[in-house]
Fold these 3 entries.
Entry 1:
Amino acid sequence: MRTDLRRGHLAERVALDRRRFLVAAGGALGAFLLEACDSQGPKSAQKLLRLAERGNEHVERLLYRHTSIDVPRAGAHAAGRHLPSYYVSDTVPVWDEKARGTWALQVDGLVKRPLRLTLPDLARLPRIGYRLDHFCVEGWTAIATRTGVRVSDLASLAQVDRAAKYVDFQSFDSDYHESWDIESALHPQTLVVYAQDGRYLDPAYGAPARVYSPVKLGYKNTKYLTRVSFLAERNGGYWSDRGYEWYAGT
């Protein structure tokens, strides 16, 4: 099953989190500004929208607890093959070794030791498996067991510079990418995932590897991963550049 955000995710098209924040913070004014607007709002409201988002992000950062751990509710069943698949390309992205060579994950940016890790390389690193909730901006949740390598372990291997405040996750899915705050990227449950529910990822779910963390909404979790870059400044993302909330914490 394909879930296409361009057609199916109404909440993401109208930036639901931003709308809720503006209505709560600005009352009737916020609702008026967003009435009949696209996800980015009218040009005349851009400054107010950016101010509101910065305020929203500030609150989310204050509420974010680095020690909080996601524990799915007892008795909840894994979604299995019913977990929706998502990509922005016209067809399921598949890494073509004949055209591109062996897939490898680049870890670079503000690091002392850039890394190039093939799938076997990743599998040889300390392996972490978590049964985790997946939180969609539309309001639904699903459970899967994610297996991979902590982003914090990759950061240690690459010797990330203290000047790095953001992390950008890039993919081969029509150049999809999303940047994160480094605190969320280094959360102990933020993983570069290469297996789901006990088997290696297949193309529908982001093979060969994808980033996943329960501390971010689904659209921030880049699939078809090719590069993890540590940055001093954030550089937006596929959906956040289109007006959707950049921080997108859960």
Entry 2:
Amino acid sequence: MKSNMLLAFLLSFILLVSLPVWGDSTNDDNDQTNTSGSNTQITGGYTSTTTNNNDGQTNTTTSTTSNTTTTNGSDVPVNSANSPSFSAMSQDVCSTGISGSVSTLGLGVSAGKHVRDLNCERIKLSKVLFDYGMKVAAVSILCQDERVFEAMQMAGTPCPFEGKIGKEALEQWDKYDIERPDYNSYVSKLENRSRIDEELAEIARQEEAERLRKEQEALAKKIAEEKAKLATLKAQEELNNIVDNIIETDLETEEKRIINVHK
């Protein structure tokens, strides 16, 4: 708050002490009017006269030169505003300097600040913990970065969870998945996988339906063939019965005829 008030005071002071610059010439009757910027006018009248007297002959030469230069406000050079320099060299800090400046006619402003590099801080803290022998803690602080967390999951070595490591830690992360540093990307990944699983399940269902249809068609064809075979066998059996009946009838008739002949 104090820094903002100080900056506002400085800007007000600069605006008050800044005065417009007018360009004009003396002893001329030219008028200038400008509503968009400062003008600089340069006017001049130069006259030279040369007289030569040779053997009673007089030569007179007169030359007059007038120059007028007008400069609009857009062509007037603006004072530069230099941005403050920030450096973290030779210091064991994780910060980056950012600065900028803006300059206009009669006013220039520059500012700068330091920005913390949280990733750099995380790496330094992990190194210090590892040097102290706290390996699990060193890995845990690196796991606060979602890229490290996801890489550990993909490698089959999940990040520690409140003292638990390995399979037990994985079960806790699955149970309290909202605490994962990569929760948003994790949810998006689950949605994509669910969509892909549904598509694969639909493909498998269609393939299974096609397989069952083909099996039913094959079974129906086989049943039709068996029925045709049975019908053929039945017809053959009926034909055999007819033949047997005919033969039996013929034998009885022949037997009766023989008996009648002997009588």
Entry 3:
Amino acid sequence: MEKDDRSPGKLLGTIKLTIILFIVFSLGFFPFVIFGYYVFLIIPFNELWHLFLIPFILYAGLAIILFYQLLFNGLIIHIFNLKYKPGEYEYTLGNKDAFRWLVVCVLYTPIRKILEIFPMGEMKYRYYRLLGMKIGNNTLVGGTIMDPCITEIGDNCTMGLFAVIYGHIHDYSKDTLTISGIKIGNNVVIGAGAYIMPGVVVEDDVKIAAGAVVTKGQRLKKGKIYAGIPAKEKK
């Protein structure tokens, strides 16, 4: 009975998510359409040598798509303040906080996949900041940030390839979504393939070994080295 009562809200929420996704990503493709229009105005492609321009045009078009997808995606999340906050929420489309998290997810996840292939340099960090992530100076984020809205990382940090920082946990048995912020201090090294779970606090000058798993709510002490599953201090 409860499932039937929720179905109209679920359908409406799904429609809203689909419309938001369509509008935002369509805006990101619009500058590419304008670029293509002017390319065909300028270059008639009626001579053989024009074919040699195609790889350069495609490369420029791809760069335009990536840039504007990041720009419009980040700006819409920032301007409409879609950032979510830590807490435990009922995992349904009818819950405003859970819905806000889902909206960010459907907008951010495709961009996150793109950033794993095309790092995009400084634009990547500007995009993260638009989503609410705090990133210090001289910091390299080489892994995956699952929840930028609630992630903070300090100065002079290095996050290795395939490392993952999680900020949320689904409990399908209870239909709950738990979101907890992650705070990483200054001069921290996160090894390749390490996992950092929700609610973790990493103090300054900590080194986390490759493949380590820092469990939910764990606090890593200043200047220490941690390794293993779960992550433990190495003497």
